[in-house]
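Write out a record, focusing on structure:
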Amino acid sequence: MNRARSNLALARESKPTVYLEDLCFDAQQAAEKAIKAVMIAEALSQYAWATRYPGTESPVTPHEHARAVEMAEAVVSWAQMSL
């Protein structure tokens, strides 16, 4: 959960010199790591992860970034309540 919270903190830090795609990636990583923490806590030892890396799609908008952070916050919060 510490890594999930760290990624979420990074995702929240919007700066003019940082691509929103990178911040959305941190939001996705926060959600993924939070879910993984719950799975580990539940003693689920086998799982498959598909990771999405930023590609060549059109740039992320500020609204899309805000939504990614919002969804990651919800997943991290759920995971914290589940542990």
